Amino acid sequence: MRVFELPELQAQEFPELEFLIGFLHYNGLGVPPNREAAFASFLAAAEAGLPSAQYAVGRMLHGHSQSAAAQWYEKAAKQGHRLAAQGLAHIHESWASEGRGDYSTVIAWLTRAAELGCATSSAQLGQIFDDGIHVSRDPQRALLWFQKACAQGEATACELLACAYEDGGLPVTIDPSMAAELRARADVLRAKSARDESDRVLRAAKCGDRTSMEMVVEGFRRGYYGLPVDLERAASWEDALRVRDSEPGTRSNPDQSGDSDR
C-alpha cells in the first residue's frame, strides 16, 4: 500500500507529482522504502506520458524483463530522454551479442543518446569506430565522436584525444601542446566529477536515502565517491543509518553543524 497516493484522475493530470510520490517511496524519504508502491506511482506517471517516469519504469524492469524495459525506454527516448536512449542501446547490445539483434540498432540508439547530450555514449561510439567493433574501422568518425564526448565533459575521451595528439593514433597532427591542454581538461573534469558525485551522494544521504547513507559510510571509510577518508564521520553516518533503520521515516544528519563536506 502506498502511504502517499493520488486519485486516478489526478495522477493523469499531474504525472510529475505522481513521479515524486514514487521517488519518495523508492528512496524511503519520509516513509518506509516500498519498491512496489514506487513502481505503482512510476507506472501511473509513465502511462500519463512523463518521460522520466517511463525511464524509471524501464530501470526497475531491466533486471527482470529486458523486453518490457526496452518498451518503456523507447517511449522515453523518443521524447528526448538521453539515459533511456542509452539504456535501450545497452539492451540491444546484449541482444546482438546473443544473436537476437544487430549492431546497427545499437549504434542508432547510441547515436541518439549522444545527440541528446550523453557523453558516455559519444565516447562509446568513438571507441566503436576506432577499434572497428562490429563495424568497419573509421578513424575519422572515431575522432569526431571523441571530440564531441570531450566537449560534453567525458574525461576519458579527452585523455584518448591527448594520446592521439602525442602519437598520431587518430587523424590529427601531432601537437604536444594540444595534448597537454587536453590532459589538463581531463584532470579538471575528473575533479569536477568527484565533487559532483560527493555533493549528490551527501544531499541524498541527508534526505534519508538509505543507499546514499551506505555510500557515504563507505566513502568516508575508503575515500570513495569523491569523499575524503574520515573514519570519525564514517562512524557518525553509520550511527545515523542505524537510527534510520530503527525509526523509519526519521532523519539523522551527522553533518548538521554545517562543516565542509570535503
Description:
With 262 residues, the chain is an all-alpha fold. It has helices spanning 8-13, 15-27, 35-47, 51-62, 66-77, 82-97, 103-115, 119-131, 139-151, 155-167, 176-206, 210-222, 231-246. The longest helix has 31 residues, at 176-206.
Secondary structure layout plus pairing:
Layout: H1 8-13, H2 15-27, H3 35-47, H4 51-62, H5 66-77, H6 82-97, H7 103-115, H8 119-131, H9 139-151, H10 155-167, H11 176-206, H12 210-222, H13 231-246
Descriptive terms for the model:
about 260 residues, mainly alpha, 13 helices, about 70% helix, flat, disordered C terminus
Return the string of H and E elements: HHHHHHHHHHHHH
Q: Counting H and I runs of at least 4 residues, what is the number of helices? A: 13
**Overall pLDDT confidence:** 89
The rough form would be described as flat
Q: What level of helicity do the residues show?
A: over 70%
| Largest sheet composition | none
Can you describe this structure in just a few lines?
Helix content is 70%, strand content 0%.
